[in-house]
Amino acid sequence: MSGRLGRSPEVCFLLGLPRSGTTLLAHLLQLHPDIEAPPEPWLMLALEAFGKVDRRHPAGCSLIETATSEFLGRIDRKIASRAFADAAYNQYLAEAGKRIIIDKTPRYWTVLDFVEAVYPEAPHILLMRNPYAIAASLKSTWGIPLRAESSRPVSVSSLAELMLRLPDSIISSLADLVLGLPRLAAQRTRRQTHLVRYELLVAHPDEEIQRLLAGLGCDPGGVASASMERADYLQSSSFGDRKILERNAIDESSVKSWQSQLSVEEMQTVTDLVGAELLLDLGYEQELLHAQKAGVLDRGPEVTELYRRMFRTWWDLRSAKARELSGSSHAGGPVDTSWSISENRDVAIEMLRGEVARLEQILSVS
Asked: What stretches of 125-257 show up as alpha helix (H) in DSSP?
């Protein structure tokens, strides 16, 4: 390990939404002798949230945040974060005997600015997948509902109540599509970003992996062929898609399975939440056409933007940004950054009501 101390590690960030195939892509890249791809480090998320602790911490979460904010306010936090991350990545690489580490963490879309500030020179691999297929996988794998009730799609005013009633983990999965997808899509024009389409990856895995390896400065010949072998390391991790442990080969069956897994109402939900405009921009014109032939309507960008505003409101309410939204209720005292929607239900409903009313009006005339 001493041979790596003081050297900046070669870090690559693999970006993509949950259920978009990031575990598969990371595994195929890790078959190369120079590359190490841990299941999901979440390291940059932890560093970005440094100083924010559980409200039950006996030392006092508000005191800890205030103290660390004052201390770190006198230094360049990016430098400190980079030093810690470099040390962690370097040690991991040394233990593995590898040269490049690929940090595959789907929720990095929430801290893209922080990742860019700490590692501006790092290459990114951006994996995009048909949003209908992602939604179908969320439904079949994690049971994420795409309808509020058996007879009503999520794309109605009940979404506000749904946001407050369901666990954060479920709404977070929908927020990945609503908020995360457009943020990741905007990364396509970033320098040193290698775009990969899931559909091409499973159709031509050898060609896609060799292209990416060359882009990372690795010998493409280091991987004889993209295969599902040597994935046992995932069994000891709490993260990563376990389904690849059951696969013997890469196949394209998952590309069109959404067409039978999603009802027309569920396809309408996905279309409303993602937006026809973004679907077309990402190259999924045929998928949108299939949904429209089944009866799905394009309700326009205003509907999608209203959903995004609702999810942004919900996200702010459940994050540290809630300090700004609820500061008046704390009378100038220390703010508990773990303030949650469940404890401030009336405030949350009031903040969502305006968007819901406008959304109801639009949907009633569409």
From this structure: 131-142, 158-165, 168-175, 181-185, 198-203, 205-215, 253-256
